Amino acid sequence: MTVSGVRRAVVLAASAAVLATGCGLSAELDREADPARTGVDAHPGPPASDRSEPPVSVPPGSRPSSGAQGAPGQSQPGAANCPAAGVRVSTGMVTATMGLRAMPVTLTNCGTGERRLNGYPDVRVRDVQRRPMDVTVLEGAGPITQLDDPGPHPVALRPGESARSVFVWRYSAVDTSTLRGSGVHVEIGPSAGAPRQTVEPEGGLDIGETGLLGTTAWQKVTD
């Protein structure tokens, strides 16, 4: 496939992934790839740092932290690997175009009672050696990109139901040999002060040492 064909495939994959989250990143990805709205590829090729970055498929259940053990006494589907907190965090496919990254994050109520959310996930990014990275986590997507954000609102999850947030960032320099600048371990909690779970998105977050990470507020998954 030609470089142009690969990039068009990336945009299509990104649009499909974001439609599934209910957020409006599709139009922004289109603007990134074709700012003049010509319907053709307006760029001869991606930047050198982006040239070999196809969409990354992440298994629906990203690896949880070693401390995320199943809670006893739970009988609903998925209880065997449900953390003690009663919720399970996973990441979806990373989409990329012209340096813009987007990744859906899903929180599923795997416990026995109702779970209530109202706001943004609590996030900490760590490097390959689990050291905290100098990443500013934003409530919302600006100034990274234009993205529909439902904002804080009550979300009630019955057992088995899920909510979703979208993480967005811009590619920044990553040393591929040492993974310096890559967010390998991402700790995500339902809200500030709640227990976080560690996921390892395949390929990591290529966010650099002093990057920005945008998030959208939790929104109930209805599909």
Index terms:
223 residues, alpha+beta, Immunoglobulin-like, 7-stranded mixed beta sheet, 3-stranded antiparallel beta sheet, 2 helices, 14 strands, globular
Question: What does this protein structure show overall?
Answer:
The protein has 223 residues and is of the alpha+beta class. It has a single domain (3-220), classed as Immunoglobulins (Immunoglobulin-like). Helix content is 13%, strand content 27%. It has helices at 3-21, 25-33, and strands at residues 87-91, 95-97, 100-109, 115-117, 122-126, 136-139, 155-157, 162-170, 182-183, 185-189, 197-199, 205-206, 212-215, 219-220. A hairpin with a 7-residue loop joins strand 10 (185-189) and strand 11 (197-199). The protein is globular, with a radius of gyration of 18 Å. Mean pLDDT is 76; it is low at 1-23 and 38-77.
**Secondary-structure-derived class:** alpha+beta
Strand content: 25-35%
Whole-Å distance between the termini? 33 Å
So, the CATH homologous superfamily? Answer: Immunoglobulins
- CATH topology-level name: Immunoglobulin-like
Q: What would you call the shape? A: globular
Give the C-level CATH assignment.
Answer: Mainly Beta
Give the topology, please.
Elements lengths: L2 H19 L3 H9 L53 E5 L3 E3 L2 E10 L5 E3 L4 E5 L9 E4 L15 E3 L4 E9 L11 E2 L1 E5 L7 E3 L5 E2 L5 E4 L3 E2 L3
Parallel strand pairs: 6-13
Antiparallel strand pairs: 1-3, 2-3, 3-8, 4-7, 5-10, 8-13, 8-14, 9-12, 10-11
Helix pairs in contact: 1-2
